[in-house]
């Protein structure tokens, strides 16, 4: 198993059963040693395991099987359009200023909804809705209203107070009227892309966005009573330093968002053409990036935020932090989610569904997506039906990523297995990480230490049975 730790002994009696190692809040040398490439585990198995023998029929059968469970639904809608390309972007997007291009896309989305709803019991509540992209606020107000109407007609949207209806917003092309309209449509959570407040960094990434744009929208969102506001930041961008990013963080903390996502920029220009506009010599070095990460965690923790895991922070009273405390936090393709046990319906180009025991993905190419729907069939081009082993390992990896610990006894009871025996190889591989202070074990309880939380992707990799067949170059660095 490619866990990239020092060689472990062949017995289970070393530090796994002995005295716990000294737990350090920060160990730069250790972070460097474990900073390899690895999956983010928004799904297990990851998308690299999807195959093109998976057909639209496989998805429709899964949709029909899922009705027996009566699980609530989560719907993701991908809007691929952007008016302007940010150079760091690795999303599936189409750059255009012509909003008329959205009309034929909305028609195809409706066709996809109709084809999907035929196989669903639509009395199942839609507890979660998320519009991502691209830039969903590329749509004008009428188009947004039209899309909500279509979603409601096909699936039946919820007005329940505990619904989680979120949309990603570009503050450069939204205003207070946009927010009021979104609230009237039923959205109760918004995510604002900020990335960095330094004018020098903004110019280098082709995203000029003065603080006042973000502040105005946040003030209005608070006034309107949006339940939760999230800000997206990115570290590792050109010209960033620990000092400059600390200045951004100070301003962001003043804005008081309920949630923060602080992503690590992965520079992969060979895969993402816009990144070729970034001069690699302008990027902060590994020392500076680690300093930025440490300062981020220290400043946000001091400001009262809970480090949920990886790149997510939330106030203690936010639903994300509450879900983690209650053990109901989940990971999906949008990151951490407070709504566990939903079947996820992905709509639009490149969208991925997680329904029953399958993953199904639409094509990333718009023309191919449109052509499939024009022929009256779902646009699924690849996917995977999970084996029993996949389902068990997905459960373990998800609990580790969400709870920062694993209860082997609970896993064993849930899946009717002898969990320590079933995962003997993974536990053996984790011995090195435990000796290094990333993990502690007490009986059937495995818990990530403060340093282990920063390397949680690495710990999860020990349970990944698909990883040996995959090349690490496909994944971003862990830290």
Automatic annotation (TrEMBL):
PROSITE patterns: RADICAL_SAM. The keyword 4Fe-4S applies. It comes from Vreelandella maris. Its main location: cytoplasm. Residues 67-303 form the Radical SAM core domain. It is an enzyme of class 1 (oxidoreductase). It comes from the Bacteria. Residues 1-21 are annotated as: Disordered. This is Coproporphyrinogen-III oxidase.
